[in-house]
Protein backbone atom coordinates (compact mmCIF):
# COMPACT_ATOMS: atom_id res chain seq x y z
CA UNK A 1 0.00 0.00 0.00
CA UNK A 2 1.18 3.55 -0.73
CA UNK A 3 0.00 6.89 0.66
CA UNK A 4 -3.31 7.98 -0.85
CA UNK A 5 -2.96 9.99 -4.02
CA UNK A 6 -3.36 13.73 -3.54
CA UNK A 7 -2.82 13.59 0.24
CA UNK A 8 0.41 14.59 1.93
CA UNK A 9 2.22 11.95 3.99
CA UNK A 10 1.86 12.43 7.73
CA UNK A 11 4.72 13.82 9.79
CA UNK A 12 6.35 11.68 12.47
CA UNK A 13 4.47 13.56 15.19
CA UNK A 14 1.16 13.12 13.36
CA UNK A 15 1.80 9.40 12.97
CA UNK A 16 2.26 9.09 16.70
CA UNK A 17 -0.77 11.21 17.58
CA UNK A 18 -3.18 9.63 15.09
CA UNK A 19 -1.79 6.10 15.20
CA UNK A 20 -1.61 5.68 18.95
CA UNK A 21 -5.14 7.03 19.43
CA UNK A 22 -6.41 4.69 16.69
CA UNK A 23 -4.82 1.63 18.30
CA UNK A 24 -6.11 2.63 21.74
CA UNK A 25 -9.69 3.13 20.55
CA UNK A 26 -9.87 -0.25 18.80
CA UNK A 27 -8.28 -2.29 21.67
CA UNK A 28 -5.54 -3.26 19.20
CA UNK A 29 -5.07 -3.50 15.44
CA UNK A 30 -3.12 -5.58 12.97
CA UNK A 31 -0.14 -4.07 11.19
CA UNK A 32 -1.87 -3.82 7.80
CA UNK A 33 -4.72 -1.86 9.36
CA UNK A 34 -2.29 0.55 10.96
CA UNK A 35 -0.69 0.98 7.53
CA UNK A 36 -4.06 1.82 5.98
CA UNK A 37 -4.97 4.33 8.69
CA UNK A 38 -1.65 6.19 8.45
CA UNK A 39 -1.18 5.85 4.67
CA UNK A 40 2.01 3.84 5.07
CA UNK A 41 3.53 0.86 3.34
CA UNK A 42 3.49 -2.40 5.25
CA UNK A 43 7.20 -2.09 5.95
CA UNK A 44 6.77 1.45 7.26
CA UNK A 45 3.92 0.39 9.55
CA UNK A 46 5.94 -2.45 11.03
CA UNK A 47 8.91 -0.11 11.57
CA UNK A 48 6.63 2.38 13.32
CA UNK A 49 5.25 -0.34 15.60
CA UNK A 50 8.81 -1.43 16.41
CA UNK A 51 9.74 2.16 17.30
CA UNK A 52 6.71 2.43 19.59
CA UNK A 53 7.74 -0.83 21.27
CA UNK A 54 11.29 0.49 21.74
CA UNK A 55 9.86 3.61 23.40
CA UNK A 56 7.64 1.55 25.68
CA UNK A 57 4.43 2.82 24.08
CA UNK A 58 3.18 -0.40 22.51
CA UNK A 59 3.59 -4.16 22.36
CA UNK A 60 3.19 -6.42 19.36
CA UNK A 61 2.82 -10.15 18.82
CA UNK A 62 1.29 -12.67 16.44
CA UNK A 63 -2.02 -13.49 18.13
CA UNK A 64 -3.94 -14.85 15.13
CA UNK A 65 -3.47 -15.77 11.48
CA UNK A 66 -2.30 -12.81 9.45
CA UNK A 67 -0.15 -9.90 10.46
CA UNK A 68 1.06 -9.06 13.98
CA UNK A 69 -1.25 -7.34 16.43
CA UNK A 70 -0.29 -4.05 18.04
CA UNK A 71 -1.70 -2.71 21.30
CA UNK A 72 -0.73 0.02 23.72
CA UNK A 73 1.07 -0.30 27.03
CA UNK A 74 0.08 1.71 30.06
CA UNK A 75 2.68 4.29 29.02
CA UNK A 76 1.20 4.47 25.52
CA UNK A 77 -2.32 4.91 26.86
CA UNK A 78 -1.14 7.67 29.18
CA UNK A 79 0.69 9.31 26.27
CA UNK A 80 -2.56 9.72 24.33
CA UNK A 81 -4.71 10.49 27.36
CA UNK A 82 -6.76 7.28 27.24
CA UNK A 83 -8.07 5.87 30.51
CA UNK A 84 -8.25 2.25 29.44
CA UNK A 85 -6.73 -0.86 30.97
CA UNK A 86 -3.45 -1.86 29.39
CA UNK A 87 -3.86 -5.38 28.01
CA UNK A 88 -3.58 -7.19 24.69
CA UNK A 89 -6.85 -7.61 22.78
CA UNK A 90 -8.82 -10.61 24.02
CA UNK A 91 -8.13 -13.68 21.88
CA UNK A 92 -11.82 -14.69 21.51
CA UNK A 93 -12.58 -11.20 20.17
CA UNK A 94 -9.79 -10.87 17.61
CA UNK A 95 -11.99 -11.71 14.61
CA UNK A 96 -14.60 -9.19 15.71
CA UNK A 97 -12.03 -6.48 16.45
CA UNK A 98 -10.50 -7.03 13.01
CA UNK A 99 -13.91 -6.71 11.36
CA UNK A 100 -14.96 -3.61 13.32
CA UNK A 101 -11.66 -1.91 12.49
CA UNK A 102 -12.13 -2.62 8.78
CA UNK A 103 -15.63 -1.15 8.91
CA UNK A 104 -14.20 1.98 10.50
CA UNK A 105 -11.47 2.25 7.86
CA UNK A 106 -13.97 1.78 5.04
CA UNK A 107 -16.29 4.41 6.46
CA UNK A 108 -13.48 6.90 6.99
CA UNK A 109 -12.45 6.42 3.36
CA UNK A 110 -15.98 7.07 2.07
CA UNK A 111 -16.68 10.31 0.17
CA UNK A 112 -17.77 13.10 2.47
CA UNK A 113 -16.58 11.59 5.75
CA UNK A 114 -13.37 13.62 6.03
CA UNK A 115 -14.93 16.83 4.71
CA UNK A 116 -17.77 16.44 7.20
CA UNK A 117 -15.41 16.17 10.18
CA UNK A 118 -17.41 13.08 11.15
CA UNK A 119 -15.96 10.90 13.85
CA UNK A 120 -16.08 7.33 15.08
CA UNK A 121 -16.91 6.80 18.74
CA UNK A 122 -15.61 3.35 19.54
CA UNK A 123 -17.20 0.65 21.63
CA UNK A 124 -14.22 0.92 23.96
CA UNK A 125 -14.90 4.61 24.52
CA UNK A 126 -18.61 3.99 25.05
CA UNK A 127 -17.87 1.23 27.54
CA UNK A 128 -15.47 3.45 29.46
CA UNK A 129 -18.24 6.04 29.90
CA UNK A 130 -20.41 3.43 31.60
CA UNK A 131 -17.82 2.57 34.21
CA UNK A 132 -19.10 -0.99 34.49
CA UNK A 133 -22.74 0.14 34.80
CA UNK A 134 -24.09 -1.59 31.67
CA UNK A 135 -27.33 -3.30 32.63
CA UNK A 136 -27.79 -6.99 31.93
CA UNK A 137 -30.57 -6.15 29.48
CA UNK A 138 -28.75 -3.28 27.81
CA UNK A 139 -26.81 -3.58 24.59
CA UNK A 140 -23.76 -1.54 23.70
CA UNK A 141 -23.27 -0.91 19.95
CA UNK A 142 -19.93 -1.67 18.33
CA UNK A 143 -19.53 2.05 17.64
CA UNK A 144 -21.32 5.32 17.01
CA UNK A 145 -20.69 7.59 14.04
CA UNK A 146 -21.35 11.28 14.64
CA UNK A 147 -22.04 13.72 11.81
CA UNK A 148 -21.67 17.39 12.85
CA UNK A 149 -24.55 19.76 12.23
CA UNK A 150 -22.54 21.69 9.64
CA UNK A 151 -21.49 18.60 7.66
CA UNK A 152 -22.08 18.99 3.88
CA UNK A 153 -24.24 15.84 3.70
CA UNK A 154 -27.96 15.15 3.84
CA UNK A 155 -27.62 13.40 7.19
CA UNK A 156 -25.79 16.25 8.97
CA UNK A 157 -26.42 16.25 12.70
CA UNK A 158 -27.21 12.54 12.88
CA UNK A 159 -25.71 9.94 15.18
CA UNK A 160 -25.61 6.37 13.87
CA UNK A 161 -25.22 3.17 15.85
CA UNK A 162 -22.96 0.63 14.15
CA UNK A 163 -23.32 -3.12 14.55
CA UNK A 164 -20.71 -5.48 13.08
CA UNK A 165 -22.07 -9.00 12.66
CA UNK A 166 -19.73 -11.89 11.88
CA UNK A 167 -21.91 -14.68 13.26
CA UNK A 168 -25.67 -14.95 13.27
CA UNK A 169 -27.69 -14.26 16.39
CA UNK A 170 -31.27 -15.44 16.66
CA UNK A 171 -33.80 -13.32 14.80
CA UNK A 172 -35.60 -12.52 18.06
CA UNK A 173 -32.41 -11.35 19.79
CA UNK A 174 -31.34 -9.27 16.78
CA UNK A 175 -34.74 -7.61 16.55
CA UNK A 176 -34.62 -6.77 20.27
CA UNK A 177 -31.18 -5.16 19.87
CA UNK A 178 -32.34 -3.15 16.86
CA UNK A 179 -35.38 -1.88 18.72
CA UNK A 180 -33.35 -0.97 21.79
CA UNK A 181 -30.87 1.06 19.74
CA UNK A 182 -33.60 2.79 17.75
CA UNK A 183 -35.69 3.90 20.75
CA UNK A 184 -32.83 4.97 23.02
CA UNK A 185 -32.81 8.72 23.76
CA UNK A 186 -29.90 9.24 26.18
CA UNK A 187 -26.15 9.02 25.82
CA UNK A 188 -24.28 6.07 27.25
CA UNK A 189 -23.40 6.77 30.84
CA UNK A 190 -26.47 8.95 31.43
CA UNK A 191 -28.85 8.28 34.37
CA UNK A 192 -31.07 5.26 33.77
CA UNK A 193 -34.18 7.45 33.75
CA UNK A 194 -32.82 9.38 30.74
CA UNK A 195 -31.90 6.38 28.61
CA UNK A 196 -35.41 6.06 27.14
CA UNK A 197 -37.69 9.06 27.56
CA UNK A 198 -41.05 9.14 25.78
CA UNK A 199 -41.43 12.13 23.47
CA UNK A 200 -37.68 12.78 23.20
CA UNK A 201 -35.91 12.37 19.83
CA UNK A 202 -34.04 9.10 19.43
CA UNK A 203 -30.31 9.16 19.99
CA UNK A 204 -29.60 7.08 16.88
CA UNK A 205 -31.11 8.38 13.66
CA UNK A 206 -30.32 5.00 12.17
CA UNK A 207 -28.59 1.71 12.89
CA UNK A 208 -25.99 0.53 10.39
CA UNK A 209 -25.60 -3.25 10.31
CA UNK A 210 -22.47 -4.48 8.52
CA UNK A 211 -22.72 -8.24 8.11
CA UNK A 212 -20.94 -11.36 6.98
CA UNK A 213 -22.87 -13.57 4.52
CA UNK A 214 -23.75 -15.94 7.39
CA UNK A 215 -25.30 -13.14 9.46
CA UNK A 216 -27.11 -11.25 6.69
CA UNK A 217 -30.33 -13.26 6.44
CA UNK A 218 -31.19 -13.17 10.18
CA UNK A 219 -30.54 -9.41 10.21
CA UNK A 220 -32.98 -8.84 7.33
CA UNK A 221 -35.56 -11.05 8.99
CA UNK A 222 -35.13 -9.17 12.27
CA UNK A 223 -35.60 -5.81 10.53
CA UNK A 224 -38.84 -7.07 9.01
CA UNK A 225 -40.24 -7.46 12.53
CA UNK A 226 -39.76 -3.78 13.36
CA UNK A 227 -42.56 -2.32 11.27
CA UNK A 228 -42.01 1.39 10.62
CA UNK A 229 -38.76 1.38 12.59
CA UNK A 230 -37.19 -0.70 9.79
CA UNK A 231 -36.87 2.50 7.72
CA UNK A 232 -34.01 3.49 10.05
CA UNK A 233 -32.02 0.28 9.61
CA UNK A 234 -29.30 0.07 6.95
CA UNK A 235 -27.70 -3.28 6.11
CA UNK A 236 -24.38 -3.64 4.32
CA UNK A 237 -21.84 -6.35 3.62
CA UNK A 238 -18.52 -6.49 5.43
CA UNK A 239 -15.46 -5.22 3.54
CA UNK A 240 -13.33 -7.99 2.03
CA UNK A 241 -10.47 -7.20 4.42
CA UNK A 242 -12.66 -7.71 7.49
CA UNK A 243 -11.88 -11.40 7.83
CA UNK A 244 -8.90 -13.00 9.52
CA UNK A 245 -6.98 -15.20 7.06
CA UNK A 246 -7.91 -18.85 7.05
CA UNK A 247 -5.03 -20.99 8.40
CA UNK A 248 -3.21 -22.78 5.59
CA UNK A 249 -4.21 -26.29 6.60
CA UNK A 250 -7.87 -25.36 6.85
CA UNK A 251 -7.70 -23.46 3.56
CA UNK A 252 -6.19 -26.49 1.82
CA UNK A 253 -8.95 -28.71 3.17
CA UNK A 254 -11.60 -26.31 1.84
CA UNK A 255 -9.95 -25.79 -1.55
CA UNK A 256 -11.94 -26.53 -4.66
CA UNK A 257 -11.07 -28.97 -7.48
CA UNK A 258 -8.56 -26.54 -8.95
CA UNK A 259 -6.80 -26.14 -5.62
CA UNK A 260 -8.28 -22.72 -4.99
CA UNK A 261 -10.19 -21.73 -1.89
CA UNK A 262 -13.75 -20.50 -2.37
CA UNK A 263 -13.99 -16.70 -2.45
CA UNK A 264 -14.60 -15.00 0.88
CA UNK A 265 -16.47 -11.82 1.57
CA UNK A 266 -19.98 -10.46 1.26
CA UNK A 267 -22.25 -10.24 -1.71
CA UNK A 268 -23.93 -7.03 -2.90
CA UNK A 269 -25.16 -4.70 -0.20
CA UNK A 270 -28.88 -3.98 0.08
CA UNK A 271 -30.95 -1.67 2.26
CA UNK A 272 -33.24 -3.01 4.94
CA UNK A 273 -36.94 -3.29 4.15
CA UNK A 274 -38.26 0.25 3.87
CA UNK A 275 -34.75 1.69 4.34
CA UNK A 276 -34.04 5.19 3.12
CA UNK A 277 -31.30 5.57 0.50
CA UNK A 278 -29.97 8.81 1.93
CA UNK A 279 -27.34 7.15 4.10
CA UNK A 280 -25.99 4.95 1.34
CA UNK A 281 -22.48 5.56 0.28
Summary of the model, kept short:
By secondary structure, this protein is an alpha/beta fold. It is built from eleven helices and eight strands.
Task: Using the 3D structure, state the CATH architecture of the largest domain.
Answer: 3-Layer(aba) Sandwich
**Structural class designation:** alpha/beta
- Give the domain tally: 2
Integer average pLDDT: 86
CATH class categorisation of the largest domain: Alpha Beta
What does the largest sheet look like?
5 strands, mixed
Between the first and last Cα atoms, what is the distance in angstroms?
A: 23 Å
How would you sum up the global shape?
Answer: globular
The helix tally amounts to: 11
Integer-rounded radius of gyration: 19 Å
The tally of strands reads 8
**Which percent band covers the strand fraction?**
5-15%
By CATH, the topology of the largest domain is Trna Endonuclease, Chain: A, domain 1
**Uncertain stretches of 5 or more adjacent residues:** 1-6, 251-281
The strands making up the biggest β-sheet line up spatially as: 4-5-6-7-8
Order of helices and strands: HEHHEEHHHEHEEHHEHEH
Classify the helix fraction into a percent range. 25-40%
What does this molecule look like?
The chain has 281 residues and is α/β, with parallel strands linked by helices. The chain has 2 domains: 89 residues, Arc Repressor Mutant, subunit A, CATH 1.10.10.10; 188 residues, Trna Endonuclease, Chain: A, domain 1, CATH 3.40.1350. It is 37% helix and 13% strand. It is built from 11 helices and 8 strands. Strand 2 and strand 3 form a beta hairpin. The N terminus and C terminus are likely disordered.
Amino acid sequence: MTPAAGRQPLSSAERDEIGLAFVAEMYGVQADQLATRLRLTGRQARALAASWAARGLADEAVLSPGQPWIWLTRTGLQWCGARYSAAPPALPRLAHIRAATEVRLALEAAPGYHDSAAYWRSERRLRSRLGGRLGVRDHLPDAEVHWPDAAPVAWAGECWAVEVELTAKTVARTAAIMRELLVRTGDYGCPVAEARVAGQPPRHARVLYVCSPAATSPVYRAAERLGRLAARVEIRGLPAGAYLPVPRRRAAARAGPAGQSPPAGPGPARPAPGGSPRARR
